[in-house]
Amino acid sequence: MFPYKHASAVYYDKHQHSHEYYSNYFTNEEILATYEEVVYPADKEDTWDIPTEVENYIDLLSVGRIKAGRPKKRRIKGAVEQKTQNKCTRCGAYGHNRKTCRNMPKNK
Length: 108
Prior knowledge:
Blueprint: H1 5-13, H2 28-34, H3 52-61
């Protein structure tokens, strides 16, 4: 893999060749060798001989589906879980906070 630009800048600053840090798989010779062999098209899918453990593994992967849209930030609470309510620090009642309080302050 090619180093990032900031890594190449460090190699340049240290007077080193960044080509020493490239992966050999990305050389022209290796890329040409990858496509040197003949690739034959596969037969129809219903004629394939697939082992059962591989077939079951493929079925497990295809069960879920990623939903479209932005993921939710909070999870939806179940019916058994308690709902949290704000407690006012001014009057001590639940359901509102100090900023929206209309009650008299409690005695300290």
